[in-house]
Design goal:
7-stranded mixed sheet, 15 helices, 13 strands, binds nicotinamide-adenine-dinucleotide
Amino acid sequence: MKKKLLKIKTTESDYSIIIGNNILSALPKKIKILCPKAQKIAIIFDKKIPTKFKSKIKKLLKSYQVYLYEFRSSEKVKSIIYVNKITENILSKNFNRSDTIIAVGGGIIGDLSAFVASIVKRGINFINIPTTLLAQVDSSIGGKTGVNSIYGKNLIGSFYQPKLVLIDVSFLKSLPKREMICGFAEILKHSLILETNLFQWLENTSKKILNGRDLRVISEAIYKSCKVKLYFVKNDYKEKNLRMILNFGHTFAHAIEAENKFSGKINHGEAVLIGMIMAIRLSVIKKTCSKKALIKIGKIYKDNNLLSKFKNYLKKKNFNKIINYMANDKKNDDKKINLILLKKIGKTTMPGKFKFSSKQLKKQIPKLLNFNF
Ligand SMILES: NC(=O)c1ccc[n+]([C@@H]2O[C@H](COP(=O)([O-])OP(=O)(O)OC[C@H]3O[C@@H](n4cnc5c(N)ncnc54)[C@H](O)[C@@H]3O)[C@@H](O)[C@H]2O)c1
């Protein structure tokens, strides 16, 4: 399989995303070029990464002073307490700005490590090796770093760009199906908000992506999906307007996760799948989008049994609470709930165009729950 390359230019720095199968061996050469003065490397691993990858990376970097950190990924790890632990430890080893931090894990390890990299000595080299499909198509791209606060998810953070994102699809061989679904939710979102062609391609490939075996199709999906995310990031790096379209379905999703107390009963991607369907149903109700589009999108859900958990988590009695959570979303700039709706497959409404009071949204509950899809 041929490697794929995406080059990103930001106002702060330029970096590349490399996508391929078994490409970790490129790492030492890349570090030499991108972090020429690095002597020390801190590698922050997700505990669930198979040992063979850890051994391989350690071996590849044997000419550096390597310090290993390993964490069991959970939203609790994404906290200022862990930031403090890692930062103090790295400082005790006398790391300086030309040294490097490498994250090897999903979005949790990536967000945490990138945030640490952004604050150690006001910013040291950072390389991201995302190992979940979600991290490969979403969280490793765009420079948003951060940890959770007792007041909510991702409320402490920074914008900070990596020197390199190395996406090796061979990590996905050990990824549970449930996590593949999470990544797929973001790929599907990317197709809905910008790329009709990607959606049409997904109509034929969704099964292959979700069963996780065809790494060639998966790397193609990652490449196509990253391009969509980069389009929004490039045009609105600091999330002032356009980039908010990437939140399509996410206001519902965050509320569903919060209502479930981020318990893991329902994970982020599953909530996004429900959130997108809710946003599309609302789009049909508000007549921004046709029912035909909803049915087309619904077919991908049906074909892959993506809404099996839907009934348990979106009961009528919970919906009021969900809407209350939505009203508190940090992305609202006033008391109203700011939603991105779908116009057609590949195009959404602009941020700020559709705002609902909780009362207005609660009125729609019976209709929202009364769709076949
Ligand atoms: N920075 C951003 O722009 C951005 C965007 C989207 C999401 N996020 C954040 O990303 C996080 C979610 O990321 P995630 O879905 O990757 O979750 P995660 O990091 O928790 O990983 C999911 C699970 O997969 C395991 N895992 C990771 N790699 C594995 C592998 N190769 N094989 C087997 N198991 C593996 C992890 O241990 C964990 O149990 C959230 O905290 C979310 O806020 C950030």
